[in-house]
Design brief:
Chain A: InterPro entries: bHLH_AtIBH1-like, bHLH_dom, IBH1-like, IBH1_N. Chain A: One of its GO terms (biological process) is regulation of DNA-templated transcription. Chain A: Keywords: Coiled coil, Nucleus, Transcription, Transcription regulation. The complex is a heterodimer of chains A (207) and B (341). With 207 residues, chain A is mainly α. Chain A is built from 9 helices and no strands. In chain A, helix 2 packs parallel to helix 8, helix 3 crosses helix 8 and helix 4 packs across helix 5. With 341 residues, chain B is mostly helical. Chain B contains 14 helices and 4 strands. Chain B has a 4-stranded antiparallel sheet. Classes of the chains: A mainly alpha (207), B mainly alpha (341). Chains A and B meet through helix 2, helix 3, helix 4, helix 7 and helix 8 of A and helix 6, helix 8, helix 9, helix 10 and helix 11 of B.
């Protein structure tokens, strides 16, 4: 099954680089696109991928440290929410790692962590720098785009790292992202079920 | 007898220096030979005589009828025909491909060949700005690829269009004569019926088809997308689904955050096989997730209130946590609500 993951990498990079006679290129691009789509749908459903994801998730979750909250009133809530965010980020990163860098959203997720750290670094240096102003400006200048394009933009915002991506690529990324998310949901549900079934009493009586 | 005649011609053909005039002469010789063969053989095909009459004419409408007859011919004639026309066919093929790549030929000819190898093919060549057409009596899937290649590459290759003639032959993809465009170095395409033929609209059409194909893939994977038609509705469903999935991930991550201390305790239990077992259980009942989602306290908006959504969705965590009395008990309750199917 691992082999099924790798050919997709080679094929997509090769077909973009080669300069072929025109007809065969377009015909092959057809077949390529079809193959990419079908493969992306199938590869997130294979058992092997699920196993890989499950193991990595478990390991990563073990390493997640609980964030200690400062306030005493909403202590439990903040603790939970903070931990939840961490867990979600961890799960997303593990998911992106399972994608093996073939898709844009996975690369964006993995890169966002680095970018966030850099931003924190920069924020410590200079206190200005707000992106909100730019957003307000576009809002006022906006003429009503056609509905489909508006929705495509929204979809681009939902899929990580796909804001300025062309329409067909965006649809491809969305397909892969949805398949990956479904697998993630399944894995996390299974893990939660396992944990609740394994030790149902300890936490309940603990609080 | 036939083979002897043919072999001479094939030799001269293989030299590839023939002008079109010479080839025309050769074809006429073939016709005469054919007539001899026909008269000698039993009354196999009266259609052949008709076809031979067609040879000299530039009549396009008869081509289609002749093609179907050719296919019958190919099956009818059998080995006699095979041997005679085997060798020169390849040579003719190459010659034809050469001429088709150069447009401006003064001579107006139709050269008809019949190949009865593995496939039944009839090749008609017309040189005065008419594309080359090869027919195959077979699969629609191949046709699809080729016609798509045709539309895609038409803007890149040389366009040879005639609407009126094309409309009679190829209307959409269900053309009955099964005429296809053979891929050569240069593509000669025929426009579909009633559609514009300039490069821009063709490119536009190709792009639109690509996008619609990808939307179909999305339609397959997103549940409930089949009932909606149109791009906007489907996009709505897709966006909704992605948001649902992301919300579910957040909810589950919160749940796991509570259960996380047990992760170290339950080390032995968390084995992969148990995971697999749960996977299959969850997969089987996956379709009910969409129904159960409204039960979650997380679900806020029905329609798309998208200006409020930022990709991080950190705000959604605060709301449900406030509504619970004690975290673990409520978690257990909601989990029993949602996850036991």
């Amino acid at each position: 099954m691992v082999e099924s993951l790798f050919p997709s990498i080679e094929n997509t990079s090769e077909s973009s680089r080669r300069k072929k006679p025109r007809i065969s290129e377009t015909a092959e691009a057809e077949i390529e696109a079809r193959r990419v789509n079908e493969e992306s749908l199938k590869r997130w459903k294979t058992n092997r991928v699920q196993q890989i994801y499950a193991c990595k998730l478990v390991e990563a979750l073990r390493r997640v440290r609980q964030r200690s909250s400062t306030t005493s009133n909403n202590e439990t809530d903040k603790l939970v929410s903070g931990a939840a965010r961490e867990i979600r980020d961890t799960a997303d990163r593990v998911l992106a790692a399972s994608a093996r860098g073939t898709t844009r959203w996975s690369r964006a997720i993995l890169a966002s962590r680095v970018r966030a750290k850099l931003k924190k670094h920069r924020k410590a240096k200079k206190s200005t720098g707000n992106c909100k102003s730019r957003k307000g400006l576009t809002e006022t200048n906006r003429i009503k785009l056609p509905a489909v394009e508006r929705k495509l933009k929204i979809l681009g915002r939902l899929v990580p790292g796909c804001r300025k991506v062309s329409v067909p690529n965006l649809l491809d990324e969305a397909t892969d992202y949805i398949a990956a998310l479904e697998m993630q949901v399944r894995a996390m549900e299974a893990l939660a079920e396992l944990l609740t079934a394994a030790a149902p009493r300890t936490t309940l009586t603990g609080t | 007898m036939l083979e002897g005649l043919v072999s001479q011609e094939s030799l001269s053909l293989n030299s590839m220096d023939m002008s079109v005039l010479e080839r025309l002469k050769w074809v006429q010789q073939q016709q005469q030979q054919l007539q001899q063969v026909v008269s000698q053989s039993s009354n196999n095909s009266p259609e052949l005589l008709q076809i031979l009459q067609f040879h000299g004419s530039n009549n396009d409408e008869l081509l289609q009828s002749s093609f179907s007859q050719f296919q019958m011919l190919g099956s009818g004639f059998g080995p006699n025909y095979n041997m005679g026309f085997g060798p020169p066919h390849e040579a003719m093929d190459e010659c034809i491909s050469r001429t088709s790549s150069c447009h401006m030929e003064p001579v107006d000819t139709i050269e008809v060949l019949l190949k009865t190898g593995e496939e039944n093919r009839a090749i008609a060549l017309k040189n005065k700005r008419k594309p080359e057409v090869k027919t195959r009596g077979e699969e629609k899937t191949e046709k699809k690829i080729k016609i798509e290649a045709e539309t895609e590459s038409s803007m890149k290759g040389r366009l040879n269009m005639r609407n009126t003639e094309a409309s009679s032959d190829t209307s959409k993809e269900t053309s009955k004569g099964a005429s296809e465009i053979q891929k050569l170095d240069y593509i000669h395409v025929r426009a579909r019926r009633g559609q514009a033929t300039d490069r821009h609209s063709l490119a536009e059409r190709a792009r639109r088809e690509k996008i619609s194909k990808k939307m179909k893939y999305l339609q397959d994977i997103v549940p409930g997308c089949n009932k909606v038609t149109g791009k906007a509705g489907m996009l709505d469903e897709i966006i909704n689904y992605v948001q649902c999935l992301q919300r579910q991930v957040e909810f589950l991550s919160m749940k796991l955050a509570v259960l996380n201390p047990e992760l170290e305790l339950a080390v032995e239990d968390v084995s992969v096989k148990q995971f697999q077992a749960y996977f299959t259980n969850v997969v089987a009942s996956k379709q009910t997730i969409m129904v159960d989602v409204p039960l979650f306290p997380l679900d806020q908006q029905g329609s798309l209130d998208l200006s409020a959504i930022n990709p991080n969705q950190t705000t959604s965590i605060e709301a449900p946590s406030a509504s619970w009395e004690t975290q673990s008990q409520s978690l257990y309750n909601t989990s029993s609500l949602g996850f036991q199917y």
